Structures are given as C-alpha cells and as structure tokens.
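User: Quick one: structure for sequence A, then sequence B.

Assistant: Sequence A:
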Amino acid sequence: MNMQKIHLSRKRIFRFIAALFCLFQLAAAFLFRSTEAGSVAASARALLAHGGVAGVITGVITIAVLTGLVLSTALLFLPNATRFTGRFCALFTLCVQAAFSVLLLLLCWLGVGAPARVSALFGGERVYPANYVLLLLSAVILGLLFVSRFERIAKKTPPTIMQALPVRLLAILGAVLCSMLMILLIGYNPLAAFEQIYKGSIGTKNAMTITMERSIPMVLGTMAVIVAFKMHFWNVGVAGQLTMGAIFASFFAYQLGNALPHAVLIPLMFVGGAVGGAFWGFLPAYAKVRWNTSETLFALMLNYIATYIVQLLRRGPWEDPMMPSFGQCPMFVDNARLTKILGCSSGWIAALVILILVTVYLQCTRHGFEIRVVGEQEKTAEYLGVPVKRVIVRTMLISGAIAGIAGMLKISGADFKLNETVAGDIGFTVITVAWLVKLNPLAGAAVAVLFSAMNKGCESLSMSATLRVNGVNIPSASATVIIGILLLFVLGSEFFLTYRIVFKGKRITKGGALK
C-alpha cells in the first residue's frame, strides 16, 4: 500500500513538472510572436526566405520547440503509461530542448554582428530570458530524474596509468572546448586566444624565462604541501611560511647587502629563508602536539599575520627613503640577487635538488616511513614505537623550511624586493596541485610547471592587441575562468576514476563492474 502511494506521489510530481515545462515552452513561443517563429509555416517561410545554414538551423530549432511542446503536453494525458515510456519521453524532450536552447543562444550571439534581418529572425535580445529559463528548468528536471535513480557512490578498483590516461586526456580536451566556447560567447576568437596563451607562456624566450621563474616557488610550495599532507597534517599555511622566509632573507639583503660578498650573502639568505619558514611551520605543529589545536585554522591565521608583518616593515624600518610616500621596500642591490644560469635565475637548480631530496626522503628513508605510518593511523604508529609528536614537529619544520626557501628564491630571483604579495596565489594553488597528483613529488613538480605556464599564458590574453574587438581587449577575468574550467574538468575526471555512481536496479560485482 505504501509503495502504491509513493508511486502515485511520484507520478503526480512528474506531471506537475511536465506541466510547468509545457507552460514555459508556451511562454517561449509567445516571445517569438513578433517574427511568427512559433509556427511550422513560419519556419518553412524562413527556410525559403533566408536559406543557408542560418535558415536551416532556425527551422530545426522551431520544429524542436514544437516537438518538445507536444511531447510535454502528451505526458499530461498518459496516466496509464508505463514507467519506461514516461521517462523516455521526458528525457528525450528535455535533452532536445536543452540542446537547441544552447544553439539558439549561440545563434543569438552570432546575430549581434550580423545583418539586421538575421538579428530580427532570431528575436533579438528578447530570446535570452526565455531560453535561460528553459535551460534552467531543463537542468532542474534532469537533475530530479537523476536523483530519483541515484542510489549511492561506490569506490571502484584503482585504474592503471594506461587505463586512466584516456580519461584524463578527454578531461583536458573537454576543458579546452568549454574554454573556447566561453571565449566565443564573449565575442572573441578562441583560436587566436589559445595561440596567445601558447606565445605568452613558452612561445618566446622571454615568456619561457618568466614561466620558469614562476615555476620555482610553485614547485617548492608543492613539495612543502606534499611533505605535510603525507602525514595528514593539513598545512594550509604555506603562503605564510613562504612570506616569513622572504622576510628573513630580506633582512640579510637589506642589512648586509653591501657588506658581504655575493658568495657569502646568497647562502646566508638561503639559510635565513629556511629558518623563517621552519619557525612559522613549527608554531602550528607545536600547538597541535601540545594542546591538540586545529592545525588548519592556526596555520591559516598565520598567513595573515605574516602579511601584516610585511606591511609593518615596508611602512616602517624598511621603507624606501627615495619614495617615502609610496610605502615600499627598496630594491635589492645586485649583490643580493641570484645569478642567471641558462637565461633563468639559478633558483631552478635549488628547486631541482630539493625535489630529488624530498622524493628520496619520503620513499627511501625511515623518516619517510614514519611520516606515512603517522598519516595512515596514528594509534598504529604509537603501537609500533614511532614518536608521533616528534615526527609531527620534525615534518612541519621540514615543510616550513621548504616553503621559506621558496620565498627566498622568489624575492632574490624574480621580485628583487620584499612586498606583501610575495606569496600571491601560490599558497592555495599548490594545495590543488598536491591533491591532483595524489601527493606524488615528481608528478607534482611537472603539474606545478604546467600550472605556471597556464597562468602566464592566460595573463597575456588581456594584453594582446590581436584579440581586440572594437578596441577592447579580452577581460582579464577570462584567465581565471579558463584556469577554473581546467581545474574543474581535471578534478572531475579524478573523481570518476576513483568512484562510480550506482543507480537503482544495478549491483556491483567483485571486480567493481556494474551488473
């Protein structure tokens, strides 16, 4: 009896949603009244009058709207229809309407710069509200249909590298296509945009040099996160540790820049950066083992404190006497700057050495084994005689030191002065990179370089004269959108490589396959 009531309730809800969909389609047809696009006869006249691709697509869109209208209305009068028939009709209707609504929106955008008759044919801007509502309603109904069939999320057998490769490549391809669609919809040439991304990242010698210099702190920041996250110590304070490393290194640059030779000053700044970062990483670790505080909140708050210390210094003892009203730190003397090797600052050598050391340390030493054991099960580590508190403090000292060295290399190899934006968005980007590569140091370094190249290439979009439309450059926010789309697709692919969605009526075999 209860199952019958539930089935009846679902049928009623489904009919109500179908009725709403029908009404919105009627409203859309009403909005087309000025061009008489709400009838098949008008579509036929459009095909004959305008011809070409625009006329054909217009007729197909109109017929699709009418088809969706008829099918949605028919659902209201099928009380005894089978479950398969009802769902099939609804799914077909919604998919067709959603697809052609997207096409209509795209063609409306194309009509902006087209002749007036094409713009009038597509209904002008009045088409936008109706189709946005149709798209939203279609997405909601498809979501409801999905939820009604959803049962649970199950973990599946981890795929091999070769099995996962096609999925990751498809994710990257999907991200590129969506980015191109986004650029197209805002009125710019997507092919020219991606050509500019290539030129702005590695297309010229100067661009490649800047990309490599940006990659150095990104790689080291990723190593710092991986070391801490291997222990399940959520070190979100890499930005603060990087900033403190830059502060400690700047002390020697400003105080002893002209007093010490270059061969002595640079190693001293290197050690100072490591000590500054290690000290800032020690604070949340000590609070964790002493008072069991939240390392996430503690490290996050330290990020802001480090930034405010920089602001205090640049408006106080380290203010540039040549520009007192600007509140900036002076530039480093040449003695405090890293030398160039192969056209880039020598920091890449330090980053490469640290990458090798971190890889060996985590995979081939007893300390690395203790880090993994503490991360997987703290009680088991205590049972095995591992000094958990000591491991936590020691690991955070190492993680903080690596982040501090990244800060030192950034200010002495690229910025050449101390500023509060020395960490930029590195602190949180490296967390994404570390999770993306599943805490693999070598893969993390490669992905960090790729992210740096993407950042540099996307930033060059808004400065390219070849992408101007009516004298207006592409918006700078488009760079952030492109990177966000890439992250969304790549992280989404990782989810589907790890888990599978189980629908009602399906069961999982021992091998992880659906049956």
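Sequence B:
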Amino acid sequence: MKQIIYIAVVGLFTFFIINSLTISTASARPGGGHSYKKSKSSSRSSSSSSSSSSSSYSSDKKKSSNSYSDEDEENEDSGDNYVFDYINIDYEYEFSEPEKFNTTLGYIIFFSLIVILVGTYKYKVIKDTNKQLVSKPTPENKLKTYKRNINNLNKLTDSDPNFSQTLFLDFASSVFTKYKLWLGKKEFINLTPFVLPKDIEYAKTYHKTVSEIVIGSINMTNITIKDKIQNIFVDINANYTVKDKDFIQRIAIVEKWKFSRKAGILSPEPEKMHELSCPVCGANSGFTSTGECESCGMKIENGKKQWYLSSYKLINYDSFKTDNLTYYADEAGTEIPTIYQATLDKNIEKFTQNHKLNWGEWSQTFEKSVVHNYFTKLYTAWSLKKLDNVRNLLSDLLYDSWMFWIDNYTKEGLTNKLDDVKIEKVEFVKMDIDKYYETATVRIKASCKDYVINNNGKVTGGSKRKKRKFSEYWTFIRRTGVETDAYDYGTCPNCGAPADKMGQSGICEYCNTKISNGDFSWVLAVITQDEVYKG
C-alpha cells in the first residue's frame, strides 16, 4: 500500500511539473508566490524492564511530505498517518502568442521518471532488508505451529526415550558458549563433532577475542522430523564482549541455531551432554581436526552420534549498554492472562503417579518450601549483591546472568534494592517429565519496593516508598527419581557442610560435588518476564 501511495504522489507531482512546462511557454512569472508546506513530525518510544535491566528509546524526526524513508516502513503499525500536503501555486500571466507544447515529450518524461523512481524505491527496500520486516503470525498459525511441534516432540521422544528438553538446551547453550569463546583459538578444534567443517575454517581466520558471554534466554522454537534426519531450531538471546585490537564493544545478538542429527539415534546420558564429551566413550580430552576422539580414537561424524550445528542465522545485532541502570519503565505484562500448558493436567497425573503423592498436598508444600523460600532468599541475595550462599539454588546459566548484572551495578557504584518482597499468588502453569529431568514452571505475582541507590545511599531510580507490582514465570528443574523437595539450604545436600564455598561452578569445595544441577533437589533454571513468556 505504501508503495502505491508513494508512486501515486510522485506521479501527481511529476504531472504538475509537466503541466508547468505548458505554463512556462506563456511567459509566466511568479506573482502571488509559491508555498510548499510540510508539517508532520512523529515520535516513537519503546521500553522494557525487568528486575535487572531496562532500556528506552525515543525519536522525533520531521517527515517530508514528498519523501519516503525507511522509518516510514518501520512505523507502519505505530498509528502515524503521514499527510501529503498540497502544493499551492499562484501565477500572474502575460499572455503572448501561445506556443505549441510537445505533449508526447511530456508523457515520455512522465513515464521515465516513474520507472526511475520505482526502481529507486525497490533498491532501497532490498538494501535495507537487514531490518527484516516480518509479519506477525495469527493466533490460528501459532496454534497450528504449537500442535505440530508437540506432535513432532512426541515422535522424537518415541524414537529416543533418552531425549530431554532440559539436557538438550543445556547442550545447545554449551555449544553456543564454546563456539563464541573459542573463535580464533586452537581449542575450537574440540568442537569438530558438533559443527561443520566450514565453521572450523571460519574459526581459523577469526582475529577478534570474545569474552563474558551471558545467555539471556534460549528456547526451542521448532522441531522437524523427516525420514532420515531430525532438526531442532533454537532461538538464543545473548550478549558478550568483543575485542578487536584496542577497540572493545559489548554487543547483543539474537540468533536462530539449527541442530540436526540422523533419525534413530539415542541421546547420550547427562554427563556426556553437559561436557560436550565424546558420545562414544564419554571422555572430554578433545578431538582431532578430522573429528577423532583423542581418547578412544573413534571418528565422530556430524549427526551420526550426537546433535550438531547444521546452520545458524543472525536475527538481530546491536551494541549493548548497561549505563541506564537507574531507568524504570512501567511493568509491561503484569495484567496479561496466564499461559497454561495444553497438557498440564495429563502431566500432573503422570508426576503424581511417579511419586505416589497427592497433588493438592504436594503443590502446597512445593509452593511454601520451594517457591516462597527461593523467592525470598534469592531476591535478598540480589539486594545484597552476594550470591555465595544461594549458589546451590541457581542453575549455572542463571547464576552467570545474575552475576553479570550485579557486576555492572557494582562498576557503576549502584545497588538495586528489593524491599518488602511479598508473593501474592502462585500458579502452576507447566510440568514436564522425561527420563532424566522433571521441570515445574509457576507464575509468581508479587510486589516489592524496587529502587536503585548509589554508594552514598541516595535513591537514583525507582521508589523507596511505593510498592511495584510485577509477575514472572519461574522454571525449576530436578533429576527424575529424586524425592527431596526442600532441605536446609544453608548446607551442602551431599555432605552437610556449610553452603558457603560453592564457587562459580556450583561445586561444593568440601566434598567436590556439583549441587547446582538438580541432582539433590529443585534448582531454579530460568526466570522469564511475563511479557515474553510463550509457554
């Protein structure tokens, strides 16, 4: 539609010019003058907020009535209607003998200009395809995609009883992290079984250094099952630091990664998935350039023993800044209806049968001993900027993300305080059970006094007096077969020693046991803001 309006207006403008050629032959001269009015401006702002980050953007640019810019296309759904103002021309004429005007020439000029302008417009559209204008899927298409993915996931687990969504996403995040960190380094060769040869060659030519990777979210978005191959598509939202000689930049990316493997393969057990180890012998000593395990000598070809990265696509790339930590935007999704898993009742029944328990009694215990307990302890630790004593409650991915933000608050001389935290409602929205892991997701509606202070104790953002209502989806994981819901969180669940020496890796320094992977009880794996949760 915009193209038609654009071409029509330019065509009319050109027609006026051609007509003016006829006037000029009558020795016309400006009498009343010529005015060209343009008076349309637009502004657009967007903001997002969570307990740990926020950003804002606003613009105010003049729109010329006879010009088209890329922002017109971006703002198509913003409610702005651009007005093409008229051209008012007043002339006084001194008529002499009329001269003939070559109308054929005028029309040739007219249509030539149209062709040129259409070509120019198409070139601009092609040139700016990096902005990726994507139509929003309809609710019907979303439902169709959801049902197809559930059906394909069932086919996948039927052919591979070992498949675990929790393990797969852990594997995918591990491949992503090592891929980025090892670019340009000799260690990249250890990814040989999990990437394509072209990735190995690309890594050899990479001259920058990547560090401080934080994965904000990682989600399975699509599953395709064919006769000989299985594919899982994963969306990864992350940020990391890139150093190119003396230039250092923090960037934020969204990428879609496609993992593939041959049909009929059984997924390796958790230990082999966690460490990107050899899927045959389990050793993580490394691989040769031809994909042979340095321990057992077995050649691991792409997709024949394990998932591998078959392709990836950059969705969005931008500079990432954390210099606006005191900005607060309105909560975006608190009033959005809760999203429940379509198979929740069926999965709850399976869970209760596996553990021989009463759902009503257990859910109350879980809500009090796990949800409320973790919520209070974790947000208290957040306000203190000290996660040592709650390291055993957080997954590695979530711990890294929280520490990234805490470090940035510290660098800016700031602290995000959450006082008077109170849970108002807890809703179970999703349960998943596979061979290795159980997953429980709840929506938590809560309120607190959320504000930021500097090192002098001065409030620089938020409110120390007014409570802020918010809601989040919290996802907990636990190894299948484990019966413990809660324990003394101040101690190591394995040896009973104080949980004060867990370290960044989540390993107890007293007994050398990793306790942040759900092997002993529930671990908080993911926190999703309500406005982006998709179920």
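Residues 359-384 form the longest helix (26 residues). The chain has ten helices and 13 strands.

User: Thanks, that's what I needed.
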